[in-house]
Amino acid sequence: MNTTGTIDRPVTHDPTKQAPMQPSSKEPLGSATPDTRTSGANASRQNRTREMQLIPEALARAHMHDQLREAQLQRRGAHLATARRMQRRAERASLRARRALARAVMQ
User: Fold this and answer.
1) Taking residues 36-40, what's their average pLDDT?
2) What is the spatial distance between Cα 25 and Cα 106, in angstroms, rounded to a whole number?
3) b or e along 82-101 (b: 16 or more beta carbons within 10 Å of the residue's beta carbon)?
């Protein structure tokens, strides 16, 4: 049976036996390494472009960037809340010390 593979179910999972990807005409120069092999490209393999291959990677990178930014904002908010709490605590301690000093002077 001579069947060609699809994107989801390639004929082989061995990358050395798969046909090379052809560069896209819309791709900027130097964005990927040039293809040196030119032997036997399957029709299904030719339908894949580098842009399509990199979409999940770009989505994952954007998602991680958003998560990092959100984590930084949460950390900044937590630090600010902690700083305000410590400032209030220091102000209360200062007020207690001032009252204690005033009591000591009055006696």
Assistant:
1) 53
2) 89
3) eeeeeeeeeeeeeeeeeeee
